Each structure stands twice: as structure tokens, then as C-alpha cells.
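Risk register update: the risk that structure generation would not scale has been downgraded. Supporting records follow, first protein first.
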Amino acid sequence: MFLQSTTKQIKHYTKVMWGKRMNPEDKQFAVIGLGRFGMSLCEELSERGAQVLAIDVNETCVRQAADIATQAVVADCSNEATIAELKLDDYDLVMVAIGDDINANILTTLLLKDAGVKTVWVKAKDTPHCKILSKIGADKIIRPERDMGIRIARNMLDKRVFEFSELGSGISLAEVVVTARNMGKSISQHPCANSDETQVLALKRGPEVRKAPDMDMEMQVGDILIITGPEDVLSETLRKL
């Protein structure tokens, strides 16, 4: 479906828009920057039923995203008027996935925060970039290559750690596979459940997920414990498994 811009401001900053009308009652996300990372986000969010607005200055990228996202628009979000015209402050979360142009990445983030966007996540290139984004108010900073490298390294070092994610504010979440060593023991006897600073949120057994499981529940080989706690405490506990 092709939609021609009508207002002067949108027509000036936005060449064309493809897609269908978004339902304001649904959770809405906007992804700015349609490189490999941004396009993957649009695809995954859309597959999970989310309302997604895909934005880029490159019309070719936008045309590709039009088959994936709810709406796709050619626009320059490093311009304050564009952000206002697109009403990005109405969105639940805006992801700045601009990768190559760091200046545009930073300026877009700053303008989004100034416009009152509820939550702004940003893709960062390196540590100095992260520091700048933190100072201007980015709600979450992502370094995809670094984060994925850390996750893979943890899994290479210890196959019992199925997943490890930083949640921010020094808190992390880990998915730990129960091995034969802990078979038949209660959840409370697992090393990750012994600390007062860590908490077992759920137990996954096959397709079943048991939230806040009974700590006296007997574990089986292959069960996955979902545990959260301070990153340093959780990391140290995992090293001792």
C-alpha cells in the first residue's frame, strides 16, 4: 500500500510512506536506521505482532522494510520538525539503530529525549559513544557485536549457562541448565539459589514455564533456572558451578 504525504512538513522531510494505519491501542515501536541490525529488529517485532514504524533516509532500505513493518517512511529524524510531525512521542519505545553516522545517531537521540519520547534505546559503536549517549539521557544503550560476543563467550566457557543478559543498574539475568550434578536436589539447594542476593524467577521444563517455582521442587536434568541478581554476585556464582 502506498501513502502519499499530505502535510507540508511531512512532505518536506518525508518523501513517501508505505504501510497500513497503526492501531493506537496496540504497543507501538519505531526503529530509526534500517541497516542489518535495524531491519532485524523490525522483522522480529513484526513477527511477534508488534506495531512497527520503520524509518530511514535511504528510500531503498525503506522499500525493503515496507514488506516487514506496519509502516515504513523515508525521513531524517536528526531534524526536530520531523520528529514532531511523525509524533514519535506517542510511541512506547523508539530504537535509534543508526550505525555509520555517529553524529546523526547522537543528535537524533537528543531530539527524541527533548521531544518527550517515553523510552529511547540506542545502538552504540564504542565506549566514548556510550558515554555521550548516557549523558544525553538514552534509556538503554546497546552494542550488538560486543553484547553478542560476551554471550557467546560465556556459552563457550560454560555450556551450563544458556543465556546471560545485563538488565541495567548492575542487575543481570541468567538461564542456567540443571546438570546431573544437581539432579534430584531441590531448587533451594542449587548454588544460584543459595544467595540472599539472587532470586529464582522461573523454571523451564521442556515447553512448560513455572513462574516463582516452589523452592522445594525437585530438579531434573535439562531443567533451566531463570535467575536474577547483582551482576557481580551472579557472575561469581556461575563461575563456581
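Supporting record for the second protein:
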Amino acid sequence: MGIFSRRQTAIAEPPAAGGHDWPAERSAPAVATLDPALRALTGHWTIDRPHSRIGFSVRHAMVTTVRGAFTDYDSRLYFDGARPSESRAEIVIRVAGVDTGVEQRDAHLVGKDFFDVRRYPEMTFRSTSTTHEGAESFRMTGDLTIRDTTRPVELQLDYLGSVVDPFGYERAGFDGTTTIDRRDWGLVYNQRLEAGGSMVSEKVRLQFDISAIRTT
């Protein structure tokens, strides 16, 4: 890891069929510090878009916060509850689906000042490592690519629980957060304020509210 379809329904999207080229889950010795419930979640997952959100928030004019979400993306997840280091994630976001609730602002974001979606239609996150930090907390490092610039980021991930829903899908919930400096990816547009400071903060908080469905 669109996530959060504008045409939402109360029924989860069916899990994608197999065919990915990732290796099947492997047996591994139990790790004493991991809850057995986590080990039972080992397998391939996908993000259920109608019940998840890949969002962002940024300070505007130094006095308020603007929030938005990316609404069109594909995801592939593999969680290894016995060996968290084997866990990985890939999310491909089609940036034209950005939604802040204001049409004019969204048009500005997809234009040349920011994402320049005609030249760079996708942004991606691909994990490179995962570590278990204790209890139900994990840290996932990965490469974030925006406008053909790739830089490493670290996500703080918290496991929220798992359940079999009324439709028979096995679900697992995770919250993930990180803060980036958008200038590192070439998003440098800004306007200065008379009293000092900038119209749009360089710091952007990314938020991943994930309801994942097991596919295998």
C-alpha cells in the first residue's frame, strides 16, 4: 500500500485470485515474543478499499490542517507472523484519485505545481525491511517513489486485531503513520505569508488505516 473508492459499498471487495509471484508462506520456528494469534495470520493479504484509508494531512497557512486521501490504488501484502522480517508490502497509487473534498484544490494537486499527474501518474511504496518492535508494534522501511524520485521512509505500524466478518472474509487491521518532507520528492511549490511562514507546510503526515483481507 483506489483505497477508498468514491463508490463505496457495504460489502468488501472479493480477494484477488492467486497468481502473484511472491513465494508462498514458509514454516518457521515460533518467536517467543510474538503472540500466537499473530503467527496464525501468516499469509497473503490485500487492502479492502471501501473499509480502509490511505490519507495525508498538512498544515495550511500555519493555522489549520488540510486532510485528504488517495482513492485509487492496488496493493499486495504478505504478513509473516512467525518471522516479521519476511513481511512485505507494495502499494501502487494512481495519483489522479487524490481527494481533499475541494475540487479546485484537487485540481491544483494533480497539476504541475505538485504531482504533475500527466508526467507522473503513479506513486509507489515498496517495503525493504520489517522489524518487530514489541507487543503489537512493527516498523516497516520502504522506498517511496513520487515524481520519479525514490527515497526511503519508515512506517510505524500497529496491529489492531483480526476477525472473520459476516461474509466469511478473514480481516486484519493495521494503523500506519510516517511524516515526510515533500521537498525531498521535488514537491517544492509554496507561497510565503506576510507575517512569516509558508502557505503549505513542507512536512506531510501520511496515514494508513488498513483493513486487510486474506487472499491465501
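Helices lie at 36-39, 103-110. On this basis the risk owner (M.S.) recommends closing the item.
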